[in-house]
């Protein structure tokens, strides 16, 4: 196997490894995903620290802010600056005064880590906070959902390099993929996608969100916060995710594998 060319991208690194092939152990090079502490500050207030892939961090900041109810829309963001430090990256987000007041009134300590969307949350209402139901729309063909999942997989460039990242994608109702974001954390990937949709002012509501993971209730929360009525996951949903999807008017699909899928909520939003 030839040594891969040197990398010049922030989301992965090249390392030297010993690789066993056909019983022979030899030196080789490998690409691994970067995982960096990313601290989010709002108007100088330290709010959350996550372990994330250091790419598309502006999208991440906006998507996290929307998903967490810190802002109501992209218009509440006045600016985003990235401050690189020796031990990580600080994302400084300037938000409107009204949003700052609201954040201070319900401020909570939260420290996240890869694969965990709730570390540090202090009260159950903060975990199970309600989300506004997604507006109804025309049913989406199941073949379009399957096509959206295949299209997302074809655009997982970082996963192809490293094998260590999740992805979240958005496709139109026809299944054509328009956006994909990747991260070592599944929640982070979806936040990046939500932020990208908002920053590009895309009318996301009639489309499809796909994720390369299981469908936890947080993934449903974030999808509903983006106003999207269809969420499709490679793996299984949880019971709480199904209940939230029922309440939020989100069609939740799991086990999208090849031509197979299981619809767990709002089957009227899916058609053949």
From TrEMBL:
The active site is at 116 (cysteine persulfide intermediate). InterPro entries: Cytidine_deaminase-like, FdhD. Keywords: Cytoplasm, Molybdenum cofactor biosynthesis. The keyword Cytoplasm applies. It is found in: Cytoplasm. Required for formate dehydrogenase (FDH) activity. Acts as a sulfur carrier protein that transfers sulfur from IscS to the molybdenum cofactor prior to its insertion into FDH. Belongs to the FdhD family. This is Sulfur carrier protein FdhD. It comes from Achromobacter veterisilvae.
